[in-house]
Specification:
The chain is an alpha+beta fold. It has two helices and five strands; from the N terminus they run E-H-E-E-E-E-H.
């Protein structure tokens, strides 16, 4: 849920606020969309997610939302085509790797880094 009058959209292809999102969702609904959230985590007022999209073409996304209370007030993303072949020269895909957080006792040390 967004805070319509305060919502800032940093994706240049999407207009501001609720009307911008409604316009985007109306366009995407025509593509029989599929979204898979690969991993997501939050830190304070921020929520981060890595996503797989299929909106008529396969893409990988990284989403960042800033919240105030229970409302999203800001959004950034980076969406790019999913590479074929699936594995890069080092043998990894764009979404492989752990999806469960570890070393939570090092969170503050990592923030300072």
């Amino acid at each position: 849920v967004i805070q319509d009058h305060r919502y800032k959209q940093h994706n240049p292809q999407t207009k501001e606020g609720g009307p911008g999102l409604a316009q985007l969702f109306a366009k995407l609904s025509k593509t029989n969309p599929h979204v898979n959230i690969v991993r997501a985590f939050e830190d304070g007022d921020y929520v981060f997610a890595q996503t797989e999209y299929d909106f008529s073409t396969r893409r990988i996304g990284f989403e960042v939302f800033r919240f105030e209370g229970h409302f999203a007030v800001e959004h950034w993303d980076n969406i790019q085509p999913r590479h074929v072949p699936e594995q890069n020269p080092s043998g990894h895909s764009m979404v492989d790797g752990p999806t469960t957080p570890t070393d939570l006792n090092q969170t503050e040390q990592n923030r300072a880094f």
